[in-house]
Amino acid sequence: MSGINKGIRKVEVSLKWDPSPAGQSATDLDLVAATYLASDPHGDPAYVVHFDSRSPDGTIYLNRDSKDGKGFGWDEVMTLELERLDARYARVVVGTVIQQRSAQRTFVGVINPALRIREGYTVLAEDDFGSVLGSTAATIGEFVRQESGSWDFHSGIKGFEDDPATFTRSMGRM
Known about the structure:
Elements: E1 10-18, E2 29-37, E3 47-49, E4 60-64, E5 76-81, E6 89-98, E7 111-119, E8 122-127, E9 137-145, E10 151-160, H1 164-170
Antiparallel strand pairs: 1-5, 1-7, 2-3, 2-6, 4-5, 6-9, 7-8, 9-10
């Protein structure tokens, strides 16, 4: 790592969508982040952060949670303080899950979904989930710790058709 390139340090992941039409059940999308140990970067997550939870050390947390897309601007916002994450963690995978409580729904049934991942004012990724319309969940990117200790970002949307619990267990596997 050079003195100029510090890598990615603190990231904001944002998600938004429009509310369901009147008379239809609410659409509820959730951000999730799974951390992986350096000893097993593609195995089971060490822990998963989602609504009603945060990382044990407070480095990954949900700032905003919406159950219906009726927020102003970004409906769900998660912060990842990678520079503070313990060295035993080598990878963090971020994803989105569509809750299936009131109706079976895939991204094709979500009105105007969008995501943005940024560090400060620098946008690292933006997407509308158009490549995973038949999916109920999707990984949206991953952060990987380099040997120098700095973090790199790898963008990419990958769809899943699992229930939320299965998705969070398998989202980081290759």
